[in-house]
Amino acid sequence: MTIKELLENGAKGLAEAGIEDAAIDARVLAEYTFKKSYSRLMLELQTEASEQERTAYEAAIGKRASRVPCQYITHEQNFMGYGFYVDEGVLVPRPETELLVEEAVKLVGTRQNLRVLDLCTGSGCIGISYYLERKKRGYYDTVLLADVSLAALSVAARNRDTLAPEVQIVKSDLFENIEETFDLILSNPPYIKRAEIETLMPEVRDHEPRLALDGTEDGLYFYRRITEEAEAHLNEGAILMYEIGCDQMDACTRYLVAAGYTDVQGKKDYSGLDRIVYGKMEEI
Questions:
Q1: Residues near 127 by beta carbon (within 8 Å), at least 6 away in sequence
Q2: Model-level pTM?
């Protein structure tokens, strides 16, 4: 069977399984299976695939047809231009989360030698990308990644070792094992209402870790806890910044104001949805 036939069969099988971007996913899985770029594959469409390649590709298509996300099959997701390893121990990094990193880099500006915490780090994409983006600008901050999940920390460590060996990692249930203070805390905590998880698309509901999705009954549990507990871990003038759900801006803003944070602001993502909220620890 030629590569062209495999691609056509793969796209057809995914479409029949109800995969929205069937042709794109078939292409991505072909690139992964054949270890070649799409442009290279296009030059080799009439090449006969080996039995091993055919079997591997069809197995990948079968997984995707059963709603396993492509990223858990290829074990890679691009975030901020960096290639991150992912598996079912962590959420797949979303493009909208890049805004959290972009805004953090803007806010700290030319400040140097900052101490930064990425709380509920998952794959490490936020903290590692922040570190690398600051490094590009000539700033070398100390970044700590923290998560309660050993599975997530294993993935974060793999990404740290590949992309930013200088970044540190700690296992911690929020601030439980963290003693340091920071100039910036970034967090994309679980924020889906528990009752809504079953309504999510099967790629998320059945494959992404519940621990990283479940924000308890109202989806706001972790914002309340982090906002209350972060004060003891923030230096004067430090920033606490969250990614939030699109309907959580008002509540998270209230929490920050009530806890004494100043200059509390929110920002919408490129789709026009509320996505980021942050506040500063008042300087004495």
A1: 116, 117, 118, 121, 143, 144, 145, 167, 186
A2: 0.94
